[in-house]
Write a structure and sequence with these properties.
Layout: H1 14-51, H2 57-76, H3 83-96, H4 103-126
Helix pairs in contact: 1-2, 1-3, 1-4, 2-3, 3-4
Length: about 140
């Protein structure tokens, strides 16, 4: 019986681990960008649904549209080293919109849960820092 060659060994090499971590990092950043893009859509749709019952007004509508644009910009920068920190700050901003429209507290909490789950997955797979540092790197 012959021994496995290095190319076909059961244990991945350090270079293969690094490549896998890099792919997982890109995938998790893509998922985070998707969350931010979805939040932009929700910020535009939820207030519109609420407007039928209580009305939004010009200021609230302007804030929602501006916030949606900021979320899309945040989605565009998640690939940057500081992009995850920007997205984490935007999660707090989304939760704060609950003071304007109460339904957004629930929506914000759900998106924060998804955001944190993706960051936890990223920590487990890529080996990024844990704790509060997870929110910024």
């Amino acid at each position: 019986m012959s021994e496995p060659t290095p190319e076909h060994s059961a244990e991945p090499t350090a270079e293969q681990y690094a490549q896998r971590a890099q792919r997982a990092d890109r995938a998790s950043r893509g998922a985070l960008a998707g969350v931010l893009a979805l939040e932009a859509v929700v910020v535009l749709l939820i207030p519109r649904a609420v407007a039928f019952t209580t009305g939004l007004g010009a200021v609230r509508t302007g804030i929602c549209v501006g916030l949606a644009v900021v979320f899309l910009l945040g989605a565009a920068v998640t690939r940057r080293p500081w992009g995850i920190a920007v997205g984490s700050v935007l999660q707090v901003v989304l939760l704060a919109t609950g003071f304007m429209i109460a339904t957004m507290f629930l929506v914000g909490a759900l998106f924060i849960a998804v955001w944190l789950r993706i960051l936890t997955f990223r920590h487990e797979v890529v080996g990024t820092p844990s704790g509060l540092r997870m929110l910024t790197s």
